[in-house]
Amino acid sequence: MTPFKLAQPIYVKGLAGEMNTLTGYTCAIEADAAKSYTLFITGASYYRIYLDGEMLHYGPARGPHGYVRCDTLTLPVKSGRNILAIEVEGCNCPSFYTMDVRPFVQAEVMADGEVIAYTGRDFKAVSLVGLREQKVLRYSYQRAFTEVWRMTSPLADWKNGEYPAAETEISQHGKVYLMRDFAMPDYTFAPDAAWEENGTFRLRGSDAHAKNRFLQPGPDVTSFQPEELADRVLDDTDADFTADDRITGTLTAGQYARFALAHIYTGFIRVKVRVLEPATIHVVFAERIRNGRIDFGNGDCSWLNIIKYELPVGEHMLESFEPYSLKYIGIMVNAGRVEAESAGLRQFAYPAVKPEIRIDDPMLRAAYDAAFEGFRQNTIDCYMDCPGRERGGWLCDSYFTAQASKLFTGSTECERAFLDNFRLPERFPKLPLGLLPMCYPGETLTGNSIPQWTMWYVIEVGGFKARGGDAAPFREVLAKILAFFESYENADGLLEKLPLWNFVEWTRANQWVQDVNYPTNMLYHKVLLVMADILERPELCDKAARVKAEVIRQSYDGKYFHDHAKRGEDGSLTLLDDISAICQHEAALFGVV
Questions:
Q1: How much is the pLDDT for 209?
Q2: Low-confidence ranges of the chain (pLDDT < 50)
Q3: What is the pLDDT of residue 444?
Q4: What is the DSSP string of 172-194?
Q5: DSSP code, position 396
Q6: What was the pLDDT predicted at 210?
Q7: Cβ atoms 339, 247 nearer than 8 A
Q8: 162: Cβ–Cβ under 8 A, 6 or more apart, which residues?
Q9: Which residues, 6 or more positions from 73, have their beta carbon under 8 angstroms from its beta carbon?
Q10: Structural domain boundaries in the chain
Q11: Under 8 Å between Cβ of 524 and 495
Q12: What is the pLDDT of residue 266?
């Protein structure tokens, strides 16, 4: 059942099946100051909402396969005519950050609860492919595309609604509607970045840089062919940089300005420039400086922190469509004359208020402040492992973030919404029943997952219950998970030869995961205890005790736990000499010792 009263899901006709499209939708609202105005909206892949040119919101929150999440916004209208504009990105690019869902927008405006405008009747549409270049490089393996903007396009002022209307078509997406659940993000501006230096740059030439695999189409990389690309942002930014304090004021071709924020932030990059002659600039950014330059990526690393703008003469306040993580911002001028007036960022973070705790030790204070920033930047619509390169909702990482979440928000609501994303689908594409995606909401690009991360999900549900959450809705998914792992138990009751990407940690321990991996079985011991509690099956406690005893009997040599044993051709298990620190750690963490 739809929560929308009248709105239809629409997209510009003919574009819904294409990669990396951008479309716009505007609606004029004649507002009565005595009434309250609300926008109810959902869509895919992502949208940006403006009222009279002022950005209000970026959404929607991510949901699981088969579902879409809806946003509700109060519109700060003025009396009289207001222009609501919605900018919708259609990726059609499966990644850790974007679901493989055909793009659409569905929205209705209400005045005191009565629908006065809705998609399918009152919103005028336009293709913005001429404003934001469609055929561009990927941003990273984990995210979709880079941004190239042609602000010389007549569509640069599309938000005023003065453009020829494009035909739209109804999107039969067939999704179930969910509410956002996560709090609306903090969009406040970070303090302006401080100017650091001006200088010159010299391009190295197209043969000077390597090309990471995400820059080329492949079995697990959806992208454009190199010959389709209209812009060569990699070639036009791969340069040697030299600071020059003689360069002040106006920048010309081959010159740059560098700015630094107070610390790493996540959000939408903003630069204000005054263009004296038609210009081409590249805004480059990164969290760090490496070898004297902003580490924005030159093809040999796993991201491409570059936004290109083609600009006419005039004042421009430029803001990225996508959120990024950064401290340093560079403005490279490839053509024209430009005055770089300011650089900064609109934050995109969880609206948590930092608990005031007296910490006299400066190192502990710095660690606490960094932990809070890390939490709020990684908690928007799921628990992410990093808010820049990936924006992926990784299990295992989430187990630890969830504990901070309760401390920083006083609630388990963020965690419930995150855990629900894994609970709601009947099963996941390309994965066996009972095995969860390792990173979600997003797409399983190669049909791979980490079975240990599914076990960490179980432990997180146990922690969620201990923190006051209701674990009853998770019984069904936990039962599926238990059935999956029970199918890999050997005659000793231990897990053996788990499929797909077995992962313990980024050390040599990851080379010692077969055939019987003892850190994994220590984890399984803990999983069974959590299952016994939530599923109300006390016999699983006895099973956990047998797993614990067998792990100790097989892997403990009186001093250390060994990591794994191999199954021989004669059917016997041979304990190998490999011993890792993580194996000892997990023995303690999961109650084996």
A1: 61
A2: none
A3: 86
A4: ---PEEEE--SPPPB-PBPPPPE
A5: T
A6: 65
A7: no
A8: none
A9: 38, 39, 41, 49, 56, 57, 184
A10: 10-128+152-179, 194-347, 362-589
A11: yes
A12: 99
Q: The tokens 């709601």 sit on which residue? A: 424
| Nearby residues of 247 by Cβ (< 8 Å), 6 or more positions away | 198, 199, 200, 255
The rounded distance, in Å, linking the Cα atoms of 80 and 68 is 33
Given a contact cutoff of 8 angstroms between Cβ atoms, the answer to whether 197 and 245 are in contact is yes
**pTM across the whole model:** 0.96
> What CATH superfamily classification does 10-128+152-179 receive?
Galactose-binding domain-like (2.60.120.260)
Q: Which two tokens stand for residue 42?
A: 């959902």
Distance CA 106, CA 120 (A): 8
Six-digit token string for 283: 């805004």
Give 3-state DSSP helix, strand, coil % of the chain, rounded to 5.
25, 35, 45
Cβ atoms of 198 and 348 closer than 8 Å: no
What is the per-residue pLDDT across 401-438, written as a single tens digit (0 to 9) for each?
999 999 999 999 999 999 999 999 999 999 999 999 99
Positions of E strands within 441-558 = 516-517
The answer to whether the beta carbons of residues 560 and 584 sit under 8 Å apart is yes
- The second-level CATH assignment, the architecture, of 194-347 is Sandwich (2.60)
Structure-block tokens of residue 421: 């994303």
Please, what sign has the CA dihedral across residues 235, 236, 238, 239? positive
What is the CATH topology of the domain spanning 362-589? Glycosyltransferase (1.50.10)
Determine the Cα–Cα distance for residues 51 and 29; give it in Å rounded to an integer: 10
Strands lying side by side in the sheet with 54-59: 54-59, 46-51, 80-90, 21-31, 124-127
Q: Which helix (H) or strand (E) holds 32?
A: none
Residue 568 CB contacts under 8 Å (≥ 6 apart), including other chains: 574
Is residue 34 within 8 A of residue 28, CB to CB? The reply is no
Provide the token pair at 552.
């100790």
Task: Report how far residue 190's alpha carbon sits from residue 50's, in angstroms, rounded to the nearest whole number.
Answer: 20
DSSP character string of 51-115: ETTEEEEEE-----TTEEEEEEEE--PPSEEEEEEEEEEE-----SSS-S---EEEEEEEETTEE
**What Rg, from alpha-carbon coordinates, does the chain have?**
26
**Who's near 334: CB < 8 A, 6+ residues apart?**
236, 253, 254, 280, 281, 282
Q: What is the distance, to the nearest Å, from the Cα of residue 435 to the centroid of all Cα atoms in its chain?
A: 22
Q: What is the pLDDT of residue 208?
A: 56
Which of 9, 40, 26, 234 lies closest to 137, judged by CA? 234
Question: Do 10-128+152-179 and 194-347 share a fold?
Answer: yes
Q: If we measure between CA atoms, which residue out of 526, 378, 392 comes closest to residue 452? A: 526
Rounded to the nearest 10°, the torsion over CA 67, 45, 394, 537 is 0
How far, in Å, CA of 18 to CA of 288, rounded? 35
Distance CA(373)–CA(342), nearest Å, equals 24
Which residue has tokens 């992926």? Answer: 392
pLDDT of residue 299: 75
